[in-house]
């Protein structure tokens, strides 16, 4: 099963709609989480129909900013546990296992992020079952996750790190360019790993081959994040090729025996 999370910077643009169609056509995600939709539920219902999802839950934007949407298939029975402008927390069934999934849009205002981390820690304290979390956290764990701009003090990363440790969250292996956001500032471009996916120890035990891919950046200043949820390695089936014209050729039998 695949899950895609994307800060799409407004779902109304033609380029964004085109990208969404492409993502769904190529990856067929069971869950699609969009942040910064900047459009209301009525508009997103059209997007749902266009992309072919069975279900849609939204959080309305605040004026022309914010807004969340979770689109998902009927293959996954969903119970909503929390729904606000920063978090969508659900309970569902994957491969016969009851799991919890949290889709996040971290606060763009640094002073307000501690409130988001506190809510996640409250959730994590009582959560022993498999737990998966994905989205735009709007924060990084250290200066190694940014390029450009001024170097930040180590203490500024502590609240985010404490939340991750308190919840027992562990990063997944990933491929692609981890600098998932790019912005222009007065002193040049800044690249950061604002988007990520993590799981608790129980998730890593059951879905041990879950992996993440940072996709190409276009249609937004954030890369879409693709998580493939797997309990075992993906099998690659190779086709057996045989040219019938070999049948009557001299030496074929001997070559097969030797092989």
From TrEMBL:
State the Gene3D superfamilies in the record. Endonuclease/exonuclease/phosphatase
Superkingdom in the source lineage? Eukaryota
Q: Where is the Endonuclease/exonuclease/phosphatase domain?
A: 5-222
Q: Would you tell me the protein name for this molecule?
A: Uncharacterized protein LOC104767965
Please name one Pfam family that this protein belongs to: Exo_endo_phos
Please name the source species: Camelina sativa (False flax)
Xref: InterPro entries: Endo/exonu/phosph_ase_sf (IPR036691), Endo/exonuclease/phosphatase (IPR005135)
């Amino acid at each position: 099963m695949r899950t895609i999370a994307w800060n799409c910077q407004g779902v109304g643009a033609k380029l964004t709609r085109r990208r969404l169609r492409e993502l769904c056509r190529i990856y067929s995600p069971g869950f699609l989480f969009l942040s910064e939709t900047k459009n209301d539920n009525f508009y997103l219902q059209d997007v749902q129909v266009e992309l072919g999802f069975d279900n849609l839950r939204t959080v309305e934007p605040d004026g022309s900013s914010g807004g969340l949407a979770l689109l998902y298939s009927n293959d996954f029975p969903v119970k909503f546990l929390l729904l606000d402008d920063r978090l969508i927390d659900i309970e569902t069934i994957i491969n016969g296992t009851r799991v919890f999934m949290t889709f996040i849009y971290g606060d763009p205002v640094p002073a307000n992020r501690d409130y988001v981390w506190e809510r996640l820690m409250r959730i994590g304290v009582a959560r022993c079952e498999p737990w998966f979390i994905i989205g735009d956290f709007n924060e990084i764990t250290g200066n190694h996750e940014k390029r450009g701009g001024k170097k930040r003090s180590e203490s500024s990363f502590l609240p985010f790190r404490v939340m991750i440790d308190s919840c027992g969250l562990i990063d997944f292996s990933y491929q692609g360019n981890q600098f998932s956001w790019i912005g222009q500032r007065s002193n040049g471009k800044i690249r950061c790993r604002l988007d990520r996916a993590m799981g608790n120890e129980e998730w890593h035990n059951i879905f041990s081959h879950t992996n993440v891919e940072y996709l190409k950046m276009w249609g937004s200043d954030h890369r879409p994040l693709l998580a493939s949820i797997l309990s075992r390695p993906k099998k690659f089936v190779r086709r057996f090729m045989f040219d019938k014209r070999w049948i009557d050729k001299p030496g074929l039998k001997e070559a097969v025996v030797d092989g």
